Structures are given as C-alpha cells and as structure tokens.
Amino acid sequence: MTGRGLYEREELTERARLALDSLCEGFKAGGTDLGSLLLYRGEAGLGKTALLAELRQSVVGRTPACTVLSARGGEQQRNVPFHVVRQLLQPALAKLSEPQRRELFESWYDVAAPALGMVAPSHGMQSDPQGVRDALDWVMARFSVRHGPLVVLVDDLHWADLESLTWLTAFSARVPSLPLLAAMAFRPEEMPVEGEQLAVAAAGAGNLMQVNSIGPEAVASLVRQEFGEDADDLFCHQCWSITGGVPYDLVTLFGKLRDRQLKAVDENVPALLELVAAGRGPAIARRLEKFGPDTYRFAYAAAVLDNEIDPAVAARVAGLSPAVARSAIELLREERILTTGAHGGVLEFVHPTIGTAVYQSMLSKGMRTAMHGKAAQEIIDGGRSMAEASRHLLETYPDDIPEVVDQLRQAAREHLGVGAPEAARRCLERALQEPPPEDQRAEVLLELGCSTLLSAPDITVNHLRAALAAVPGLDADHRELATLRLGQALAHGQRGVEAAEVTGAEIDRTPPGPGRTRLQAAHFMWRAFLREESDAFDRFQRLADLDDSLTGEDSGSRAVRVLRAWDFTLRGESSSQAVAFAEYAFDNGRLAEGIGWTNTTWGFEIPALLGLSYIYNDRLDRALDLFNEAASEFEVSGWSGGHLAFANFLQGFVLFRWGRLQEAETFLRLTLRKSDRLGRGGPLQWDTVGVLCDTLLARGRDEEAVALAQEYSFGPPYPPVMVFPDAPTLYGRLLLAQGRREEAAEHLARAGEQLTARGWHNTAWAPWAGHLAQAVFAEDPDRARALTDQALDRARVIGTSSAIGTALRWCASVAELPEAVELLAQAVAHLGQSPTAYEYTLALVDQGSALRRIGRPRDAMEVLERGVELAVQCGADGQLARARAELVAAGASPHRLRAVVAKVLNQEEHRAALLAARGLPARRIAEEMGITESAASWLLASVHRKVGAGPEGLSAVLGVDEE
Length: 963
Description:
Keywords: ATP-binding, Nucleotide-binding. This protein is mainly α and 963 residues long.
C-alpha cells in the first residue's frame, strides 16, 4: 500500500491495509464485530494527512465498495458546535431522500437532524447533550450497517469542536462492533483533555501509531527522485539536517528549489536554510507584505474563514472587487499558500500551519476583529443561522451595540436547540461584555443560567443568583422562572436545604395568584425530599392548609395535591386518601398541563413523586405507565442523560416492587452504568445502588449485594436528601446479610428513631421495624414482637394489602409456631390480593415451612408448590432453592417433585432436564433433541436456574434415578 513519497511509513500503511482488508473481507463474509480505530499522532508537518489520503486512495476499487466519510478540524472553527460531525455526515445524508433520512433516524430525527444542521431546532427547544450524542450514535451505527463497510477519516482531530470531539470519543467504544474503520490524526501537544480517552482506546487495541520524521537515507532518496540520481551527498544530508526530516518542510523546500531552478549540488547548500525558513510562519507573513495590500487582505480574510473558503465571501470580507480577488487568489496559489479544496469551487490553505501563520500575522487586532465582524454579517445577510455567525461575533470587540446582544442571544438559543450548552454559554457571556441594555442584563443572566441547567448545575446556581440580584431586576414571570430553576439546580447538586430556602424566601415577595402557588409547591417539594426536618409536623399542616385554600385546577394546585399524596404516603396515612390526592394530577386520563415530565416549571420531580406514591399504595400498574411515559418523553426530547437514566431507575424500581426481579435488575444495571458516566456519588447513583442491592438480596445473592454497596460506598454518612429505598434501613439489612446482628440492630434502631421523629411511618418505604425485629429476636424476643406489632398497627392504618400482609409475615417470624401458622395464613390472604409478587412468594414459602414444622406436610407441599412457581416467575433464586428444600423435607415423592418441576419448566426445558438427569452431556442432548449444542446449553442453563439445582442435584429434583 506504500505510495510514492511515503517513505519510512511501511509499518503504518501496512497496519491500515490489514485493518481495511479485515473490514472488507469480513463484511463480504457476513461477519460482525469488524470495526477498528486507528490513531496517528505526531507534530505538524510529519505527514499524517498523507497517511489518511493514502488510506482513502486504497479504498478505491475495493469489493465490496466502501463508503468514505471524511472531515477535518479547523483551528478557527473549534467554537462551531458539531462542525466535524456535520462534515462527516451531511454529504452522505444529502444523497438520501427526506423519507429515507427519517426512516434511518427513526425516533431520533428531531434530536439528530438539528445537530447535523439538516433542520433548524424547534423554537424553545433545549436538547440534552447526552441525548444528542446518543442520537448521533444511532445514526452512525445504522448508517454503517446499511451503507457499510464504512471508512471514517478525521484529520486535525485536535482542532475538532468540543461537541464533535466528545461524541467521537464516546462513540469509539462502539466502533469494534460495527462494519467501520475509523482513522484519525492529531497533534498530541494540542489535543484537548476531552479527546485523551480516544488515544487510550486506540492504545489499548495496539492502534495508537506515532508518526515520526524521516531519516537521512529516505531524504536522500527523495532528493534524488526529485532532482536526479547525481544529487550531491552533502546537499542531500543538508536537506535532512535543515528540515529535520519533516515531510512538509521537505515538500516546501523542493518546490522552492524548482521555482529557482537550483540544482542539488553542494554549491547551493547555503540557499537551503533561507528556502526552508521562507515556508514557515514568520516568513510567510513577511512574504505576504511583499505581495501588496490586496493580496494580504485576501489571505487574512481566508484565514478568518479558515477552511472550505468561498472565494466570493472572502473577497467581500476583504473588501475587494471580484477581479482583484481573482488576481490575489492566483498569486497565493503560485506561492503555495492557497489551493483548490477537495470540493470544487472552494479554497483551502495548502497546510493548516500556513493558515495559522497567516491568522497570527495579523498584528492589528482591530483588522482581525473587523474581518470577523464582516464575516458574521456575510453569514447573516446570506440567510444562514445566527449560530453559524456566532463564531465570528465572539471574536469582535464589545462595542455597546444592542443588535449584537440580540444576535448572540439568538445564537445561544440555537446552540441549546442542538445540544451545545457550552457554545450557548460562550455567546451569552460575550453578550454580557457588549454589554446589554440595563433593562436586559438580568434576562441575559437568566438565559445564561438556564443554558447550563442540564449539564452544569453548580454554574447554573451562580448565574441565576446574579439574575435574581440584578438591578433593574426581572419582571414577575421571569423572576418566578429564575427562582424555580435555581431550586432545581441546587437540589440536583445535593443542596436541597438551599433549594427549599430559595423558593421559600421568594414566596413572601410574590403576590397571591398562580405564581405564588407554584413557588409554594416548589418549596414544599424540596422540603419533602430532605431527610432531616425540624418542623415536619408543622410543614404537613401548612401543606394541608395551603391545599384547603386552593380552589382552581391550575398546575400549582395540582402539584400541591401530588405533594399531599406523597406526604400521606410517607407518613403512613390512609392509602385511599393518598391515591385520591394523586388523581388530581390527571386531566381526562393524562397528566395535566404543567405536570408532565418535560415541563419547565418544576422539572420531573412532581410526576416522579406521583409515581412513587402509586408504588407504595399498591398501584404499580399506574406507576409503570407513568415511568414508561417518562422514558418515552425524555427520549423524544433528546434528554437521554440524567433524565432518561432517572426514568430507567424508576422503571427498575417499580419492577422490583412488582417482584419482576430479573427485569428490574436489567433496568437498574443499565441505570448504574449511566450514573457512572454522570459522576460518582450523585442522588441518582445512591437510589440506583440502593434498589439494586435490594433486588440482589431478593434474588438470594447476598454477597453480591454487599460487594456492590462496598464498591459504591453505600453507607453512612448519608446524603441530606432521601434515598429510595430508605438508605439507613437498607444498610442495616446489608449488615444482617453479613451476620453482623449487633451492628445491624444499633443502626436500624437509630434509623427508626429518626424516621419516627419526622413522622414517616410507611412500613414499605422504610421497613426498619421488621429487620430490627430479626436482629434482636434471639436476645430479646419480647422487643422483637413489640416492634412487629407496632409495624402491623401502622400497616393497618395504611390499609394496602402489601403493607398488611408484609407486616403479618414479620409478626409470624417472631411468634410461637402455632400462632405463626395463623399469622402466615392471614399474610398469604392479604398478599395474594396485592401486586407485590415477591412478598407473596416469601409468605408462601414461610407458610409452607411452618406447616411442615407443625406436622402438616400435605398442606405444606400444596403451599410450597405455589411458592416454587411464583419464585420462578419472580427470579427469586434464593427462595426457589429454599422452597425446593422444604418440599424435600416435607417428604414430597419423586412423582410430586416431577409435577412441580413440570409446572416450572416448559416442554423443551423439561425434556432437556430429563436427559441431563440421565447423565447425558450437552452434545448428546443436542443430538437427541435435534438442536445445536449451543441451544442445548442455553436450555440447561434455564433449567438449572428455574429448579435451583446444579447438575449434581438435578436427579433428586426431578425424582428420577441416574443411569
């Protein structure tokens, strides 16, 4: 693959050739996992661009034909969001019809299309940056599968815009699983930290390749290739010595030698140093001055535009007539400063270092900013987006021009619409420097704060506080918005106390009306999330008084009633009353306006509390519908960062309460990975780790739950806001799982005291009493019974079947055996009417065990069989093994055991199990059943999981004799 002029690059080009061969041959054979990432690193001028060009050329004539996408970072375009991504995908997508693009994008169209510059963002739209990255992942992955094999080339990666670089870095993890070869080049000394992980990924695969200068022998060969075999040795050596073996300097030197018609002889050695220097930055600037003002003005305008330079636009920016511009272009081409770009009709600098040198040579900052101002006006007059013009506006001098402030604010809105909050922030900060008119300054500060709400809550806080303190201040509507957004930012930054204080302070200065009600609702909402509150009972009464004073059905009134539903739930009050309050959130069966998941008033907290209220009041169907709706809305809105992760957590949480433990674990592990990406120790991670630990304990994987808690430091000290489930209660249960009863008892008792002092008596959210009873029963049975009796009393107040049934099971666990049997019968009756399948499973197995121990094996087996079936449905492997052991202890006959297993296993699984019980290996089972060995292995894995026994115990479970 080595081409003419690529000296000492054999290893690098061979690596690329092998990667390309593997991609094409694997794609032809229908293979998967074909992708690879090649990264070329080296200083300027070492030939990285030539390596990419060589790879591009080697694609020609391949079978199957490869689709090539290419882009190049621009030093002056690093402030243009998704500039590199758009270069990659826009030309390819432009070849598709609108229906084809929509079909390719599927549900991601409204998120990806604005980021790719295909459509303008919707008015008022603010896309989550993570959501946009996920959308681009989807588009690139689908495109590579449909139009692959794909070769993606990115030059000057170090100058890629932040948004593109962040996406490319994240997307690199998916490359190996796609029919895609990505090759990129960068200068290590200029690579931003956001791109460092790319180098790590390439290095891990052995594909981070250093591009070095070439040696004296290669330079001598090049000289003789260009100037004849009789070139003098000293001349050749000096060419290497002066250029350092840098290919760009060599090519420039050879061009100058040809221009001057100098021969490669020793007498011309003194001229070499001057000729090399003439091709470098400072010399280029001096050369430009010699060409006259028209030529250097055109060169400066070209440097401002950076790459893909439209000659007509450059001429207008330079203030030149078309004829004068054409003359300047010809001269700059002759001097090897400009050349025709890859796309006809546009210009580019022969090498990026020339463009940098020209730009930096503009000693007059006034000239530079004036040209940027003209370039911005050209874009605006041409009807292109304000976001595109903003990169030039950012480089202009502040000059107290209100129109510029308006333009920058519009650009910021467009940047937010495509998921580029950093770009929006730069525009708004520059707008403040202009500065804006006094009556607009507070609004700009508000917009600046809102621009970072989805990505940087701490920065948001500072700007919103400034907006609220500005004089002259915000109008009433904007002030309410700023306060509510400030509360969200504080709460999301684990500063819930401040969130409550901020919203509370604003209530007094707001006149009665819907705005005041919304602020009151927000204040009570943030107070409700706090773990510790000195006046909890007073707050409960104040919330009730506020509700009594409301007569309308505006969003504030509905939010207050959702908060009352949650308050009733946490306090362990009547479930029917809590659900009645919750129903006020709906209008004709749908969440009312202003209460939805993507509303801009209070964020997702109100509908989240609504769903949680349903969870703890045995309305899991309503809760799951709500959380599925949340995930759908967040995806459609492109909020697939923290928002979608929180929706996934809620989905996992309700599935856990439902007893669908395997599904719950899937959702929760997905959320945990997302929370890792968002940063350790946040509220979402605490919630996710807590429910996942609870799920693992329910599945009988105690050691794994303990290890997970230790990995994420789940334990004291706890966050100041509540965790779902209650963190101290769960930590006490984890201590119990480790056999640390005394520590567990102390911890659970303290948790109970704190919750009781707050008035939170819900036995489902914080089941501390039941676990504490287990911890102290051996040493103090009377205390254990008092605890469970108290829990039962509180459960009866709540009135749900799950709360009463679970409390009855606790009572049975510390009661004498005859009484326990009766209590468990009641527990089973209640839990059989609840949707909490796992709790029902526990009660059934407990009841079967108790019946066996009082000498009623026939009744025990009937109950245990139901427990086995339900444990399988739940994925409660620990309870499945326990129920099976109890069946054996109750004397279940082999026939009875087979009947139980038959209910658990499907027909294929049952047949595979019988064959395995006879000692047949997976290969023989596959032959007997006429399936593949892999399919037989999957069947056996399902059998072992469902019956709770390995190969050695399978015969006993099935009640058959081994052959």
